TrEMBL record, chain B:
Residues 29-199 form the CobW/HypB/UreG nucleotide-binding domain. It is found in: Cytoplasm. SUPFAM superfamilies: P-loop containing nucleoside triphosphate hydrolases. PANTHER family: UREASE ACCESSORY PROTEIN G (PTHR31715:SF0). It comes from Streptomyces ardesiacus. Homodimer. UreD, UreF and UreG form a complex that acts as a GTP-hydrolysis-dependent molecular chaperone, activating the urease apoprotein by helping to assemble the nickel containing metallocenter of UreC. The UreE protein probably delivers the nickel. Facilitates the functional incorporation of the urease nickel metallocenter. This process requires GTP hydrolysis, probably effectuated by UreG. The lineage of its organism: Bacteria, Bacillati, Actinomycetota, Actinomycetes, Kitasatosporales. InterPro entries: CobW/HypB/UreG_nucleotide-bd, P-loop_NTPase, UreG. CDD domains: UreG (cd05540). This is Urease accessory protein UreG. It comes from the Bacteria. GTP binds at G33, P34, V35, G36, S37, G38, K39, T40. It holds the Pfam family cobW.
């Protein structure tokens, strides 16, 4: 396995559509809930420990070879907002395309055939990590990091926030990302034996409600 | 290109000329250029000129997302199901060049949902002179500038002006009012573009988009040949 | 009170309701068993519907307590379960957390409305609530859960609430909310509750949603109606207090009718 493959997959410039998604930050900025680096940090921390952890566990389980269909259904049940399910599938489809071109694999072909409009992005992320020869821990790291770096980058564009402050937020979350990644792998190993029911289901009410409000705006900069 | 591979596989990975069912996909033409140069107006005029003879669809990329799509809808140049707006996260150049996945999905979905299509026009959001389309997304690109943006733009060049398959110098009717020298713009453009074509147009005049429409027809003929 | 067993440091109590169609267009309650803090009363219903009230005979749950409620609506039943007052989670003598498990089962051709009053997480309390719903493909459900974090002017206790809804064996909703001291970081931040002190959900399951999915909508900023990946919809809301939460949930629900 190549460690450098992790850098390729985790690179914010990996062409899988992430740049057009704010992870709920656009809605939170408009609602006045993110106004500066401190509130961005609180937002990212909340996202990390709720939908971020759920996504990381799904990605890690997919990287361990758990059935993508089962994981996709579990992700659906943990994503009540239809706008967020649409966004997750769009990103999953875009990642499927990018990953198939980068690391051709029968498993990625199979998920593309099974989900022509896209599987939930963390499911595909786990399979992409597998195809790249990476581990479940790598998949969890990628998932958790993009879950916080997406909002941070978006807030730089939305608020004109100092990019050094935004990067500082990500650095301050690093220890929590480490812990969450390790826990995600432990959970994913239990999913292998006990099924997707043991996946966490932690939710953040304002992420869901905000995503629905955002999807109804006539004009917006980010897709979600 | 890859004429006979991935036939049973779902969804092409990049700009394959064939769709998964083996049929030839639509020709994709990108339109880029600075804010306000008349990209959307050109797209609207092209739709009106070509919609009787070609099966058409449009993808817009705009930093204000739906505004361009809504302009096209208001002008009633195409039915709404033939226009898709792609959000770009305030980075239209990223969406047409560096990470084209959302645009590829949009053109493929249009072919699936309203196809078969002959032509998909992909309009970039207004951006700067360095923004160009990826060859993975479009087969040809048009760069639109206008006389009011300054008659030194062709001389300054930049990837869009220098390398686009077609350069449009738009709003020629305004030249006398903004003090732009059309002859000089044409000469400068020729200097940086060599044999690549340049069209000077005013959409205010009768049939103002005819030359560009003819260029598109030639492209379509070459694509389907 | 004979079946109330005191676990080390706490009370174990359970309640069971079994409802079925009585064959004459009404609903019979062959099982109606509660105890201590989970006493049950049948109250006057309307039409085919039977109504049951949970009437807490003592406050709780306290730290160390473990309550279990099991409600089954069999074919032909129309059952509405409410509570006479809010449930108050309080700190116990020892540090142990409390557990409250609700298990609801609804068969084909049955309807359950589970509409308890709000759960208040008092300062210093530590409660884990699980609500697990199993529905047959032809079952109907209206479920409301409301959580108020802290009594007036009080810091909330620790509360973890998980709600799982399965229809015909398939999980369509699995949501866990964690809040209060020691909850995963950011729970009260801009992604979580952003200072709101009341949070609630309503789940509506109707077989006809399979053919005609409900429309989603946002209601007054703080609430959203969200069609789920199955014949069900979730109304989710946050509000400054319990009164305004109820108003939001009720208002948003109207869009489903």
């Amino acid at each position: 396995m190549s460690r450098a493959a992790l850098l390729v997959l985790a690179d914010g410039r990996f062409p899988a559509g992430g740049h057009a998604h704010s992870g709920g930050a656009e809605a939170a900025v408009r609602a006045g809930r993110i106004t500066d680096a401190a509130s961005l940090e609180a937002f990212c921390r909340g996202r990390l420990h709720t939908s971020g952890v759920v996504a990381a566990c799904v990605a890690a389980a997919a990287a361990l070879g758990v059935d993508p269909g089962e994981l996709d259904r579990a992700a659906d049940a943990r994503t009540p907002s239809p706008a967020l399910r649409v966004a997750a599938r769009r990103l999953g489809r875009q990642l499927t395309r990018a990953a198939r071109a980068t690391w051709p694999s029968p498993e990625l072909d199979a998920v593309a055939a099974l989900f022509p409009k896209g599987a939930h992005q963390p499911v595909v992320l786990g399979l992409a990590a597998r195809a790249a020869g990476l581990t479940a821990l790598d998949a969890a790291y990628c998932s958790l990091y993009e879950g916080v770096s997406g909002p941070a980058t978006a807030v730089v564009r939305l608020l004109g926030l100092d990019p050094f402050d935004a990067t500082g937020v990500l650095a301050r979350l690093a220890d929590e990302v480490d812990r969450a990644a390790r826990e995600a792998v432990e959970t994913a190993e239990r999913v292998v034996t006990d099924g997707a029911g043991v996946l966490p289901a932690r939710s953040a009410p304002l992420l869901e409600i905000g995503a629905e409000a955002h999807a109804a705006w006539p004009v917006r900069l980010f897709a979600s | 290109m890859h004429l006979d591979h991935h036939h049973e596989a779902p969804a092409a990975v990049s700009a394959d000329a064939r769709r998964p069912d083996g049929t030839r996909r639509a020709l994709r033409i990108g339109l880029g250029g600075p804010v306000g140069s008349g990209k959307t107006a050109t797209v609207a005029a092209l739709c009106r000129a070509l919609r009787e003879e070609l099966s058409l669809a449009v993808v817009t990329n705009d930093i204000y997302t739906r505004e361009d799509a809504e302009f096209l809808l208001r002008e009633a140049v195409l039915p709404p199901e033939r226009i898709t707006a792609v959000e770009t996260g305030a980075c239209p150049h990223t969406a047409i060049r560096d990470d084209i996945s959302a645009n590829l999905e949009a053109v493929e979905d249009l072919e699936d949902e309203v196809g078969p299509l002959d032509l998909v026009l992909v309009e970039s959001g207004g951006d700067n002179l360095t923004a160009t389309f990826s060859k993975g997304l479009v087969d040809a690109q048009v760069f639109v500038i206008d006389v009011a943006g300054g008659d030194d733009i062709p001389r300054k060049g930049g990837p869009g002006v220098a390398t686009a398959d077609l350069l449009i110098v738009n709003k020629t009717d305004l030249a006398p009012y903004v003090g732009s020298d059309l002859a000089r713009m044409a000469a400068d453009a020729k200097a940086v573009r060599g044999e690549l074509p340049v069209v000077l147009q005013s959409l205010r005049s009768e049939d103002g988009v005819r030359e560009v429409a003819d260029w598109v027809r030639e492209r379509i003929a070459a694509w389907t040949a | 009170m004979d079946r109330v067993t005191t676990a080390p440091g706490g009370v174990r109590a359970s309640a069971r309701v079994l409802a079925r169609g009585d064959g004459r267009g009404g609903t019979a309650l062959p099982v109606l068993e509660g105890e201590g803090p989970l006493a049950l009363r049948r109250t006057r219903g309307s039409g085919a519907e039977a109504r049951v009230m949970l009437v807490g005979a003592m406050s709780g749950p306290l730290g160390g307590d473990h309550f279990t409620v099991d409600v089954q609506a069999r074919s032909g039943a129309r059952l509405r379960v409410g509570s006479a007052a809010a449930t108050l989670a309080l700190p116990g003598q020892d540090k142990a957390g409390a557990r409250y498990d609700v298990r609801l089962t609804v068969d084909d051709g049955a309807e359950l409305c589970w509409l308890p009053e709000q759960l208040i997480s008092a300062g210093g309390s530590d409660l884990r609530l699980t609500t697990s719903v199993d529905l047959a493909a032809g079952a109907r459900l209206l479920l409301r859960e409301e959580q108020v974090l802290g009594r007036a002017g009080e810091e909330p206790g620790r509360l973890t609430s998980r709600l799982t809804v399965r229809i015909d064996g398939r999980c369509v909703l699995d949501q866990e909310l964690g809040c209060g001291p020691g909850a995963p970081g950011g729970w009260d931040g801009p992604a979580g509750l952003a200072g709101h002190r009341a949070v609630g959900q309503v789940v509506v399951v109707r077989p006809e949603f399979a053919d005609r999915p409900p429309a989603g909508c946002v209601y007054e900023e703080g609430a959203a109606v969200m069609p789920l990946a199955g014949p069900a919809a979730l109304v989710s809301a946050v509000a400054p207090d319990g009164l305004r939460l109820r108003r939001l949930l009720d208002g948003a629900l109207v869009s489903l009718d």
